[in-house]
Amino acid sequence: MSKLPKLILGRIGLGAVTLVVVSMLIFVGVELLPGDIAQQILGQSATAETVAAFRLELGLDQPAYVRYFNWVVGVLHGDFGHSLANGRDVAALLAPRLAKTLFLAGYAAVIAVPVALTLGVLVALFRGSLFDRATNVAALSAVSLPEFFVAYLLILFLAVKVSLFPSLARLDDTATWGEALYNTFLPALTLILVVIAHMMRMTRAAIINVLASPYVEMARLKGMPPMKIILRHALPNALAPIINVVALNLAYLVVGVVVVEVVFAYPGLGQLLVDAVVKRDFPVVQAVGLFFAATYIVLNLIADVLSILANPRLRNGR
Amino acid sequence: MLNFLKQTPPTAIFGMLVILVTAILAVFAPLIAPYGETQIVGAEYLPWGDGYVLGTDNLGRDMLSRMIFGARNTVGLAILTTAIAFFIGSFLGIFVALKGGWIDQTVGRIVDVLMAVPPLILALILLAILGSSIPNMVAVIAVIYVAPVFRLARAAAMDIAELDFIQAARLRGEGVLWLIRREILPNITSTLLAEFGLRFCFVFLFIAALSFLGLGIQPPTADWGSMVKENASLIAFGDITPLIPAAAIGLVTVAINFVVDWMLHRASGLKD
User: Fold this and answer.
1) Which residues contact A165 (CB under 8 A, 6 or more apart)?
2) For residue A33, what are the CA distances in angstroms to A26, A70, A116, B123, B169?
3) Chain B: nearest CA to A200, how far in angstroms?
4) Which residues have C-beta within 8 Å of that of residue A9, sequence separation ≥ 6?
5) Domains of chain B by start residue, with CATH
6) pLDDT tens-digit profile, chain B (272 residues)
7) Of A210-214, A314-318, B140-144, which range is least confident?
8) Do the Cβ atoms of A144 and B228 come within 8 Å?
9) Would you give the DSSP letter of residue B256?
């Protein structure tokens, strides 16, 4: 029994270490700039005094490890510094956009996960049929398409040719839930289409893998209906890989929003990141990058812990 | 030949045809394209036909010509990037598999960290630091994709490194380079090749996405990703022209996936 907590604690520890190293990577990256950040921002024409003054303002007179430490302490207190482009507080800049990005990703996930799992089970049930093969080709194609292609196709058909949904995902703070869901339907649908294919394929593969085992043969021989075999015998044992792929796709949803947000001009974190990269606004890039990386790491961590818990052999300590 | 066509699934044949056409367009782009890559030939956003098969783009350049040159730039850069990632990744992977010990641990942990960050986010952070240009983009994406290639090459080489003929070669006193090139590489080539196809798709989509965001291949170079962005406003008028480069990206990726799927199927000897 003592094995399980140890395993899980170990995994959480590993996640924490990864997070720290990644935060260093994000911080140190900026240090590697040729010259320094003050020179970069002010440009070639700046006088030596302005650069020196700006350097002092940014705290560049302190050694890197002190600044890293200060940055981490600041981040832990919710202080991400100030934007280089407009001097605004980064945390204040992030908060409303974070809510919007999470709203969009959550919206897509709530629809995509159940649909993908149901489709995956159905395709595994009717494997080898025309339905299975057609779904497989469709899924393989969907995985191969760039997100912006899917997004523009949806805009073309559902917003321009038939004016069902707005092509720009405006989201006012006054909007009711219904309006918000309606206005962001197209970006959410794009994300759903992109992640469903992968989750469905993996669900199918995981179930079919289990279907080859002797106890499924046994269930089949005693005359159990195929649907019941899959739901009672195959699915519980295929849970670990399925949980993993669902968590991976949730992580992808949070990250994949970058391109989709740009297409639909949706005021979320992804668009902020792209803008900040273009302007080389490092505090914003660091903050958003750290947030995305942390989400990704934590979701992967949850996936691993859940798949440890889903495995009865590990759960029962042997 | 006929026999081959019969045995190969239609999806794979379709895939190979698409790849062949793209390769021909890319190699002979200047001979095939009716106009130059950046040549302004008329008014902006001319409709299809009338001398310009696919009309003109936002600056009055011939769309068809830009599509053809785009094949060369986008696909060419994707191949270059994938090749760099594979060269470094597989060399490092096999090297640490042979050496083991602290080198193995160090490189392994670095790769773990690289893979813990979502690729697009890592690329955006690195591009913010380096500034966006073609060499920077190629370098950044290559570094990001070294990680998965390293893992695969290391895992594949580990299995081989334990075998007797490697021991024999070591006892003969062969150097590490010889071991990598003559003993291990020939045994894991098929694994690496299939992976190359898959990774190429990822890199290709990645470059397209970065260019679409305006952080990859920079204008005026013709490239399928940025062509979508440049002409995106046409979509609001129900014009499908901006979707053609996007569709081309999708088509090439689907084609490669079909071929790789078939190759993996054949290599594993499955006949379900």
Assistant:
1) A158, A159, A182, A183, A185, A186
2) 12, 20, 44, 16, 45
3) 17
4) none
5) 12-271 (1.10.3720.10)
6) 677 777 788 888 999 999 999 999 888 888 888 888 878 777 777 777 777 777 788 788 888 888 899 888 889 999 999 999 999 999 999 999 988 888 988 888 888 888 888 888 889 888 888 877 889 899 999 999 999 999 999 988 988 888 889 889 989 988 888 888 888 888 888 788 888 888 898 899 899 989 888 888 887 888 898 888 888 888 888 788 888 998 999 899 889 888 888 887 776 654 44
7) A314-318
8) no
9) H
Neighbours of A3 (CB within 10 A): 12
Whether residues A140 and B258 touch (CB distance < 8 A) is answered with yes
State whether B129 and A144 contact (CB < 8 Å).
no
B11 Cα to chain A: minimum distance (Å): 9
Q: Residues B95, B159: contact at Cβ < 8 Å?
A: no
Q: How far, in Å, CA of A38 to CA of A194, rounded? A: 41
Which residues have a Cβ under 8 Å from the Cβ of A242 and sit 6 or more positions away? A117, A120, A202, A203, A206
Q: In terms of CA atoms, which chain B residue is nearest residue A301?
A: B116
Q: Is the ipTM of this complex over 0.85?
A: no
Q: Do the chains contact at A160 and B124, CB–CB below 8 Å?
A: no
